[in-house]
Amino acid sequence: MDMMPVIPRPRRSGNDTDAESTNYRILYAANAVSRIGSAFFPVGLAFSVLDLTGSAADLGYTLGATALAELGFLLVGGAVADRWPRIRILILSTLCSAAIEALAAITLILGSVHIWELVALSATAGLSGAFSRPAAQGLIPTVVPVGGLQRAISQIRLANSTSFVVGPSLAGLFVAATSPGWAVFVDAASYAAILPLLLRLRGRLDTTKPEDPAASIGFLGQIREGWTEFWARPWVWTVVVQSAFVNMGDYAGFSLLMPVAARELYSGASSLGFLISGTGAGFIIGGLVGISWEPRRPLPVSVSYLLGCAAPLLALALQQPFWVVLLATLVGGFCTEQHGVYWDTLLQQHLPQRILSRVYAYDQLGSELFTPVGYFFGGAVVASMGLLPSLWICVGLIAVPTVLVFTLVAIRGSLHPDSSLFNPAR
């Protein structure tokens, strides 16, 4: 059978399975509440900056501070999550986020805030994500019943996708009815609301770390070990390199070029709203399919789905009718979510628990490494070359590496269990 070597998991009794199911439901509920609240933060932050200075550049600096802080500390967060109990990392990061955002919300509501304080707030949000994301990813396999990992990942991602579709609209209405500061306060309240859930989960888990020989190598040694483990698995870093280019093209195309195309080729803001909703609907459909369908060869399936990210940009580049572009956004969202479900499942099934958070951190860092490049230079490319050539460049950034990596993992037989692509001991 063509499949990757699975790390053995011990047999569990019925009581153990019931306990894991309860733990998973607690984690799922905490994630869902947090995601709904987090949808309010970027909307509140954006309008806070625009109300304060009216400068798009200041908004760019503020939003960029989140990405830079998270990317800058991801490796540290991954090492921390592999060194100490992950549930404790989640609780501490949640507590810090609740306190800092509550303070920021009060400051915004009172009206005594400066732009540098908003930049610092944004950076703090990114810093929290750098610790919470690797810890959460590493925690999922420990609370999911045997055989239910992909279903659990699909359910979690489905909740995230639903919040992506519904959250910003609710946040926009809320800001219009109140003020940006209150939107930030909603996010702070959501962090406070999930603390009892995380504390309950902590009480149900064994938070003692197993004796690990790697702990003696020190903190920096663990980061280096994470790189060694990451590089020893070409099936991981090959897809990460692919994703770095795909994300550069996809993010620049979606965030920069699609609004320009909606204005120049269609009816402007209303068209853009429908296109974003189409992408969100694709996310939801992809998550629903991921709950029930488990491909026999998940790696080439996951890799090939990234080609679908180019669908809406290709339709725009070909200047298709709006309904075709709308359908293409549905396809793009579906393919993006399907890739995410199967890729997350592959990582969590086939990486040892002791290195999972560190390898995940390298995965996220590498996958998003070129994204700021797409943001910073995308506007200049449009200004110098025009919209349509810029769209074709983004399509190429997605399609070319995807075809190359798919050829490697599917046509050249790299899925064989004896292949060095999967077995780092070879």
Automatic annotation (TrEMBL):
Transmembrane helix recorded as keyword: yes
The keyword Membrane appears for this protein: yes
Organism: Streptacidiphilus alkalitolerans
Subcellular location: Cell membrane
Main location: membrane
Name of the molecule in the record: MFS transporter
Pfam families: MFS_3
Topology versus the membrane: Multi-pass membrane protein
Transmembrane feature ranges: 26-47, 59-81, 87-110, 158-176, 272-293, 299-318, 365-384, 390-411
Matching InterPro entries: MFS_trans_sf (IPR036259), TM_effector (IPR010290)
Gene3D superfamilies cross-referenced by the UniProt entry: MFS general substrate transporter like domains
Entry keywords, A to Z: Cell membrane, Membrane, Transmembrane, Transmembrane helix, Transport
